[in-house]
Amino acid sequence: MGHASPLIVVGLMILSASAPARGAGGNPPEELLKEKDLRRSGTTYVLGAESEVQKKLHDTRALYQQLSFSERKQQEFAQGVAGNTALIQDLTQQRIMLNQQLQQAATVAQNNQLVAMINELTDRLNLLREAAADPTTKRELDALVPRQREAFVQAVIGLRHLVDVTSERYKALAEDPQVKEALADLNRKTKAKLTLGPSRSFLASAKLLEKVEASVLTATVELRKAGGVYWLDATFNGKVTKPMVFDTGAGITTLPAELADEIGLKPGPTDPSVSCKTADGTVVRAKLMTVPALRVGKFTVKDVECAVMPRGKADVPPLLGVTFHKFFTYKFSPESGTLVLTKVDTPEEQERRAAPRTGSSRASRSRRAARPDGPSTSGNKGDPAGPN
């Protein structure tokens, strides 16, 4: 057999050296990695899903900030209405006393002075009542907050699914012999060591998601069916526990007069009245009052608006209405007899939960929020959805 010419051998060696590295199946390693949805970022090959994770995390943070703002406005409005109610009661009592003094006025000057004071009080009362009677802001916030809360919770669930799927894909790619060979081929041609993701950015996002998830609090409450309705246990002011009907159709939490007495609510003539339609279709004039604290499961809501029934209406059971469960996203399952309450922690609640407990302050005592047992808070600090 003849020998190959030295020139031919050298030519073949040159061609072999200049040919691009081939991965499994004969494809260049870059093409193979691209087929696996991997792209180079610095010295790391990352999945295209990483950019989607970043986008969804940004969107989730925006939803959280919108929800926090709306919840804060809702709480401020509720506090303002509660404050107006107390002030209306105080001014009404002052006007009653001035009217009594007017009947005993000894001089014209004294009479005129008392009349002027009564007129001023009347004007202030009218302004306060007009502000309290305007339902537009309350109605808008009560409709907006549940929608925003549900949107945020669903965004967190979707983001968790995407992060988990992406992490599993990285695990599978790390064991893929084609990917291993492609990276090895590339590293034989470069000084910088090329690696497979996830990137540091993705790992940071996954860690941040855990913090976001910590703001979504859930509790399952057992319900009991009796008389065609579902009952649960509720604790008033941390002291009195009573069964209540869970009623998704009740606009306001309703208390019989006897239960109101037991928890310290004493309706007076200056308390505003509200019309309530009972199950039998009867319209009853009840007194609008506020329960300082109402707990169901592990969640406590401060300053729950309620209607106290007149004493002659003993056949109306205590109803847990929208004025309590508007603070939650809830899922009611008649089949299993359970109620799942989901609440999103406000930024300040997260901040207080992380802070050392050195005693309560005036600010912490004045805050109003739905919360798990522990301090209640309000404000806009400590965004769990990440730094600005």
Walkthrough of the structure:
By secondary structure, the protein is an alpha+beta fold. The protein folds into two domains: 20-214, Helix Hairpins (Orthogonal Bundle); 218-349 and 364-372, Acid Proteases (Cathepsin D, subunit A, domain 1). Helices cover 48% and strands 22% of the residues. Strands 5, 6, 7, 8, 9, 10, 11, 12 and 15 form a nine-stranded mixed β-sheet that branches. The protein has a three-stranded mixed β-sheet with strand order 1-2-3. Strands 4-14-13 form a three-stranded antiparallel β-sheet. A hairpin with a 2-residue loop joins strand 10 and strand 11 (299-308). Helix 2 (29-35) runs antiparallel to helix 6 and helix 5 packs across helix 7 (200-213). The longest helix is centred in the first third of the chain and has 54 residues, at 49-102. It is elongated and about 110 Å long.
Task: Name the features.
388 residues, alpha+beta, 2 domains, 9-stranded mixed β-sheet, disordered C terminus
